[in-house]
Specification:
By secondary structure, this protein is of the alpha/beta class. Strand 1, helix 2 and strand 2 form a beta-alpha-beta unit. The N and C termini lie close together (9 Å). The strands form two sheets. A five-stranded parallel β-sheet has the order 3-2-1-4-5, sandwiched between helices. A two-stranded antiparallel sheet has the order 6-7. Helix 1 crosses helix 7. It has a single domain, classed as Rossmann fold, CATH 3.40.50.10320. It binds zinc ion. The site of zinc ion has 6 residues, from loops.
């Protein structure tokens, strides 16, 4: 990634936030999530399969239980996870069909995990864009297709995706994401913070801001972090009943605290266990999110996002 297009994208996102009436300065009062009830249409924006459970398992369950609609859009299908491929295929030189097979497995896991949280099949939406390539689409490959280094694909290769065959370009991704917003009509979007250290996460946050602003609405967006910096979340491993601490990367942002009931924590753990491929390689990190609270910022903090 060259620095200048990313910087331009971040500047555009900051402008979009201001245009939508949000201030770029850190908030001081602790915000809260909007009321969750039968009128709620929740959309969780997940860069990879498992992110929706890590960030938002409690809110998803609460919306489903209140009679609202819960949907998840997975931007990628996790087809470039080096650790997975190394462990499963015992080689770093993985054939494109093996990377695609891993994605198919991860999509099955995502369906199972999200169903355990209360997301119906109609709310399980896969876009199939390239793992580790999303930021490149939004910067260097807006109109020229990007080719995934792991699958060899330059267009969505998954029949289970919403739009198979759509090219790997930023323009196509934005159109597909807008189609998801049109379908879901969300009243609340939970998106990755542009401050997350994973480039796919940052890009998914910026994508959410850009497309939802264009449609005339940012007020219903809240932001979460999974790759929060400095060894967060700490300590690693399963500690049920313990609250999640604020990520170092969310410093300066006021965070809404969403408290999970013990049964919701249990269901979160059950959902996470559906991710066999991820639990085999990353269990201590993943289990560290099974805590008694989830944290959401009402500001993206894009002005401090890493380059
Ligand atoms: Zn992720």
């Amino acid at each position: 990634m060259s620095a200048s297009p990313a910087a331009a994208l971040l500047a555009a996102a900051a402008l979009a936030v201001r245009a939508a009436g949000c201030t770029a300065a850190p908030a001081t009062a602790a915000p809260s999530l909007p009321r969750l009830d039968a009128q709620t249409s929740l959309l969780v924006v997940a860069p990879h399969p498992d992110d929706e459970t890590l960030c938002c398992a409690g809110v998803i369950q609460r919306v489903a239980r209140a009679g609202g609609r819960a949907s998840v859009v997975w931007i990628t299908s996790g087809d470039a996870s080096e650790l997975d491929l190394l462990l499963i295929e015992k080689s770093l030189f993985v054939k494109p069909e093996e990377a695609r097979a891993l994605a198919a497995t991860r999509m099955r896991e995502a369906r199972e995990a999200s169903a355990r949280l209360g997301v119906p099949a109609a709310g399980q939406l896969f876009l199939g864009y390239p793992d580790r390539g999303v930021l490149r689409l939004l910067t260097d490959h807006r109109a020229t297709p990007y080719t995934s280094g792991s699958t060899g694909a330059a267009a969505v290769p998954y029949r289970a995706a919403l739009f198979p065959g759509h090219p790997y370009t930023g323009e196509s991704l934005e159109r597909d994401f807008a189609a998801v917003l049109e379908r879901v009509q969300p009243t609340l979007i939970l998106a990755p913070s542009p401050r997350d250290s994973h480039p796919d996460h940052r890009a998914a946050g910026l994508l959410t801001i850009a497309v939802s602003t264009r449609r005339g609405g940012l007020p219903g967006v809240r932001y979460w972090i999974v790759h929060g910096g400095e060894g967060w979340p700490s300590p690693r491993g399963l500690l049920p009943g313990v609250p999640l601490t604020a990520a170092p990367r969310s410093r300066g942002l006021a965070l809404a605290v969403f408290a999970l009931e013990p049964a919701e924590e249990d269901h979160m753990l059950e959902a996470l266990r559906a991710y066999d491929t991820q639990m085999r390689t990353l269990a201590p990190f993943l289990l560290a999110f099974v805590r008694s609270t989830e944290l959401f910022a009402s500001l993206p903090g894009a002005e401090l996002a890493p380059q």
